[in-house]
Amino acid sequence: TGTGKTAAFGIPMVERVDPKNKNVQGLVLAPTRELAIQVAQRISRFSKYTNLKVLPVYGGESINKQIHALQRGVHIVAGTPGRVIDHLKRGTLNLSQTKIVVLDEADRMLDMGFIDDIDYIFSRVPNDRQTSLFSATIDDSVMSICQKYLKNPEEILVSKDEIALEQLDQYYMVVNSRNKIDYLLEMLKKDHIDKAIVFCNTRRSTDWLARKLRHNRYSAESMHAGFTQAQRERVTNAFRNGKFDFLIATDVAARGLDIQGITHIINYDVPVEAPVYFHRIGRTARNGGKGTAITLVGYGEIPDLNKIKTLTNTTIEELEQTNPQYC
Predict the structure, then answer these.
(1) For the segment 203-223, what is each residue's pLDDT rounded down to a tens digit?
(2) Comparing C-alpha atoms, which of 136, 108, 207, 173 is closest to residue 326?
(3) Taking the mean position of all CA atoms in its chain, how far away is CA 146?
(4) Which of 117, 169, 175, 229 could form a disulfide with 81 if both were Cys (CB 3.0 to 4.6 A apart)?
(5) 31-44 burial string, b = 16+ CB within 10 Å, else e?
């Protein structure tokens, strides 16, 4: 949500790494290519006035480029588990001098089936390392990772009051699911929405909704897990550069996106898992800015909305269907 999580582990990592030692001393594991790239960019920024080299390592691009960078000397690697293992097995990545390991969005990595990959990577790093784990939810699977790889860890839990930012206005509207597209179009027409991400729960929905918006003369593109890495980067860069105004996305595709100027998050579908809601709305109101989140709630989705409400003490205000501001 732009509150400084990457800085919380990135700045201490930069402080502890020895620039004279050209081996990999810091490793950040992330569930998606986009997050690995973003983390690497952030840490590069933190280390701007040092001689540290930071490298994002992920699939979907030429491995030779990454191999050449590793051969020249890299201090910190931010990568996805699959590509990190690829380098380990090729012998192009050596973690024997790694001091710090960070598991970022550990719950998502476990959801995506990376547990065996994590086990393999930890078998290749020194036992006397420092390990940090960041997770939106702490369930049994995350706890098992903590117990296995963290030694007497300090546990920090973010309270309900902190889970959603105060500068983010949150609204919801209960509607007939079949009419959601009409409410969305009316909302876009009457409310001043410059740049927004619209979340759907399925790939099919994202493609369908993007076509509907384009048919109504809105500049919109879809993005979901079915896209190749090159396609994702093309869409993400076009959105970041203002080539279109509305990104229609699934959770996996948009998780970790950090794009300036997003004024609104619209949940076309209510997420089935309540914590996902906070990941979604965290794409706006970043770094102290203002933002608005609006959720269209079908009658059958009301129980899912109620689960979300129990996770936060901030107000999610109901909009009447006749509210002129939004419909």
Answers:
(1) 999 999 999 999 999 999 999
(2) 173
(3) 21
(4) 117
(5) bbbbbbbbbbebbb
Which one, of 276, 270, 239, lies nearest residue 255 by Cα?
276
Coil, strand or helix: which one is 29? strand
The dihedral of CA 119, 122, 128, 129: what is its sign? Answer: negative
Give tens-digit pLDDT for 125-148: 999 999 999 887 777 788 888 888
Residues 6+ apart with CB under 8 A from 291: 167, 168, 169, 262, 263, 264, 265, 281, 284, 285
For 288: left if phi > 0, alpha if psi spans -120 to 50, otherwise beta; the answer is: left
Domains in the chain, start-ordered, CATH in brackets? Answer: 5-149 (3.40.50.300), 160-318 (3.40.50.300)
Q: Which of the 8 DSSP states describes residue 11?
A: H
Question: What gap in Å lies between CA 297 and CA 169, rounded to an integer?
Answer: 17
Distance CA 131, CA 26 (A): 10
Give the whole-angstrom CA distance, residue 104 versus residue 101: 10
Distance CA 42, CA 123 (A): 27
Token pair recorded at residue 241: 């550069």
Element (H, E) at 213: helix 203-215
